[in-house]
Write a structure and sequence with these properties.
The chain is mostly helical. The chain has one domain: Orthogonal Bundle (SMc04008-like fold). 67% of the residues lie in helices and 0% in strands. The termini are far apart.
Length: 105
């Protein structure tokens, strides 16, 4: 398979993941992070890092909106719930397994 076709397949799969996460507003980032080691914010940071690699000017707020489907502040207000003590404790315990991405400029 040539690289262009592989890139197109991977891009389509990524868009499917983003669409699914936009529908599943009940899935809290902390729960996804605790289980899988990444969340919507990590995906946004990966978008930001990829934009840098391709010489595109995308800021973090734009990357967040690409992933959330709306401004991050709006999503937080509509859907984000307060994390429980148990969720915060699990987050701290699983931190070594969290995605290794930083994308903040």
């Amino acid at each position: 398979m040539d690289q262009n076709k592989l890139d197109a397949i991977q891009a389509q799969a990524f868009r499917g993941l983003i669409a699914h996460l936009q529908e599943r507003t009940d899935a809290q980032n902390i729960d996804i992070m605790n289980l899988a080691g990444f969340c919507r914010n990590c995906l946004s940071k990966w978008v930001l890092a990829a934009s840098d690699e391709h010489g595109e000017e995308i800021n973090y707020d734009q990357a967040l909106e690409m992933v959330y489907g709306m401004p991050y502040a709006d999503w937080k207000q509509k859907y984000q719930q307060r994390a429980s003590d148990e969720q915060i404790e699990t987050f701290a315990k699983t931190k070594p397994l969290h995605a290794k991405i930083s994308g903040h400029r």
